[in-house]
């Protein structure tokens, strides 16, 4: 394979610079005692202290994590069962119909999901707040879990299930002893994606959250609309480190299990 | 549906989900698009949508989405192409994707500082002797930030389809006397067109429906279809009109998806195009 030419290297370096400069710019100024994002005065950790002393902010962080964990858990459970159900649908037309319904929420723009869920919750009479946010996050995470689990199920040989049936396993045993252990990497991948989708979501939450409840991204939005506060910078530095840790951890976990089992989850 | 396990109990939650959160919301949006502020049946929302104000807004939203998608392809294609030729390409690709995992709001917030009157962008301009410019709250800043955010979603599918090309085909083309440019134009580009298509799909639709960047970066200079929906639902409280715009956004989405063909497996999904 030919080595990269010089212009190519310069171009790639430029793209990487553009991609990372804003992020490091944010983090750099989180240490600025000046209070603005221009003109660095002195090194300080006061903005980090401000984050950790702000009880309201900490509660919002806690809310965000709880919503993410709960929605990822519940959507993984429903999604895995749904995917298994789809695999067992023998009617091809029916299966394709369910699969296209499954992709609707993946391809829909956030505004539409948010707006239509807002109508739905109002019609049903659900009070906007924790419950509506949690239910929305579960709803938009389910199809992602299904998509992550399906390939694993498709690659599983049906003779495994026939063998289990012949050996006298009940339906429940087949599910918990044969199918679920086999598709475990897919389940983990789905859970992880659901978690990050929930943590990352702004638009849908923005629509269905009431006045009393906020997740981190909704809070950052209202702070950013009010102008520059270096507390956001400190917060984003912390979020960056956590995100990086999650992504890299997931990547290496995946690499390792791919090397061990010869079957990889999705490539990041 | 003859199999014994075709309708086991554990499917119930999934089907309830489809009914409640896929079918019902779409039906409700369509239903509300026929309601006026008082809740009576009307076609006025549709008449409004085709009036000059909304028509112009739709056109400008499409124009911005087109611009954003086009520039993203221009930047992402060479990036993806050269990335496939690097030594540790999977690692480099991961590094391209990591910024897409950082919350959109934080990236938009960074640009509020960068494009601010005293920010680094203006310092650079002043270094070249021009006065401080108002960069924030212009359509330039909107397009720039949107392209910045979408680049990883464009690079990923293009990279995947370029990476799949059998190198023997390229060698064959060169052996048969094609120049580098002809090889690219006649062999590489047609073989990787699906990657470009899924990239366009992953960028164009979100670009039509963004409202975070327009609010934070473009002030009220740029109104996309997404901004208009948010405005109608959360500010004006006119759910009927908001639903009508949403119906059209769904229609545009379907048309774009038909035009760009079936999505490549795992194309945009691994990134977060939302």
Automatic annotation (TrEMBL), chain B:
Highest taxon listed in the record's lineage: Bacteria
All residue ranges annotated as the ABC transmembrane type-1 domain in the record: 58-260
Record GO biological process: transmembrane transport
Residue ranges crossing the lipid bilayer per the database entry: 12-34, 62-84, 91-115, 135-159, 238-259
Chief location of this protein within or outside the cell: membrane
Keywords, comma-separated and alphabetical: Cell membrane, Membrane, Transmembrane, Transmembrane helix, Transport
Protein's cellular compartments: Cell membrane
Gene3D superfamilies documented for this protein: MetI-like
GO cellular component terms attached to this protein's record: plasma membrane
Membrane topology: Multi-pass membrane protein
Similarity comment text for this entry: Belongs to the binding-protein-dependent transport system permease family. CysTW subfamily.
Name of this protein: Spermidine/putrescine ABC transporter permease
